[in-house]
What does this fold into?
Amino acid sequence: PTWLRLFSILLMFAGVISTAILVAFLAELMITRRLLISSGPRKVRSLRNHVVVVGLGSFGIRVVADLTAAGCDVAVIERDENNRFLSSVAELDVPVIFGDATLRQTLDSACIEEARAVAVLTQDDMVNIETGIVLREMLGSRFLPPGSRSDIPLVLRVYDRSLGSAVAQRFGFDNVRSTVDLAAPWFIGAAMGLQVLGTFSVGQRSFMIGGMHVAPGSELDGVPMRDLSTQTRVIAITRPDAPVTLHPRRDAQLLGGDTVYLVGPYRELLATLRKGEAWEQPANADAAAG
It folds into this structure.
């Protein structure tokens, strides 16, 4: 029948078109991937005074995005060609070099000698340490110039705090950061009621900036600032219906209802927070008094 012949012809055309679309999609996917792989080293060759980020994980992509937003040129070294953040990096127009960062030729392709800083942020501590050692050997005098600090900051992400401290002392790395040390103050402070504004490290010690409410009748109500911990500094005090007091004097008193903004070692801030909480008298004591 005529209708069956027409249906067969349409079916053949549909099969040919579907096959052509599938082949074109696969070809574009392969060509785009190859262009991405080959274009990375070519773009990096034109960079000067850029930041090299090793590792494109959830932490690395955040660093890349922040550096790009700050106006810095960035180059990324990543081992996995199927990394899930490649599309995000492509949107930021950041070149990616695929390879093993522990190999000198991979680091050479990122123009390490022309970089302003290097951040090694993979999820493997041993890979980060090995990459740092290779970079230290490659940079030579630029990493440890006689009588001065390195002119190429090298930041290593090491999950284990004790391992990071040992590596920093053994190999002379100034910027070994533990993600646990940086994140723990946020979680602990927020869980205990402290308004955490930021954390930072000095050497291998973690510091925190946070806001604390002084409850009426607490240990801190009426206490002068000079009686606080010597490692804690008050940078501002806010009171209801009063202007903000910046850098208050040491003889200033804390009053119930104040919101105090402090900076210091986060353990010291947590201890101060406990003193600022309201003291509740046990119910059995009230019954005995009655």
Q: What stands out?
A: The CA atoms of residues 55 and 121 lie 5 Å apart.
